[in-house]
Amino acid sequence: xxxxxxxxxxxxxxxxxxxxxxxxxxxxxxxxxxxxxxxxxxxxxxxxxxxxxxxxxxxxxxxxxxxxxxxxxxxxxxxxxxxxxxxxxxxxxxxxxxxxxxxxxxxxxxxxxxxxxxxxxxxxxxxxxxxxxxxxxxxxxxxxxxxxxxxxxxxxxxxxxxxxxxxxxxxxxxxxxxxxxxxxxxxxxxxxxxxxxxxxxxxxxxxxxxxxxxxxxxxxxxxxxxxxxxxxxxxxxxxxxxxxxxxxxxxxxxxxxxxxxxxxxxxxxxxxxxxxxxxxx
Length: 281
Ligand code: DGL
Known about the structure:
The chain is an alpha/beta fold. The protein contains 11 helices and 10 strands. The chain has 2 domains: 8-99 and 213-280, Rossmann fold; 103-210, Rossmann fold (3-Layer(aba) Sandwich). The protein is globular, with a radius of gyration of 18 Å.
């Protein structure tokens, strides 16, 4: 990329999980203007239906475009599975990059002697048509152990990634993977890399964790190459409608130099309330 080019990229997630993707973007494009929106007041998405996730994704996209974003990174597996097609249809002139569980590379790298591949993801991601298709294309049923993690994103957003309640829930979800002898675990939710160490402890030290954040950042970099450079200097700006202290803590753990958190308005036009729609599971 031209040294002076500074594309403006909008990134969103249901909460602080997408900071793991933001960190990969920042590592690849330290000069880019990166805008991050954390929809923590409306998390978790993974236990909601498609209409809810699509509406929140539209609200956040509209917000980021209004801030000057030229490209949108959907840093949420659930929103990618349930909403990216609708976003592309509504904004055909905007480039979107999504994230999906790294099932393909996990299975492609699998040797005969390896154990099954474990997939940790939200209930909505695992139940989505997009994920089913991914499995049909690359999976062989028997070699994959799917594990939904209801309550885990909520625990991270409420108590933090290292809180005892979060870790206790996580250990319960990792148990079937350890018992099945999984040697690779796909982190199918952007919140889960925040728990990488605890997942390794729970499944076994030798397990390989697959996080596609860097591949997503590489794709965003390719798409950003021919965007016009913006005049403003490179900067990282974050908005949240949740607890700013949590975002700052997670950002620091991801080595992201975010100094302050702006308030993401809850009452954005055409938004729906967190409890307006029934849960999926
Ligand atoms: N980080 C989101 C994902 O990648 C979490 C979804 C949720 O809010 O449940 O799926």
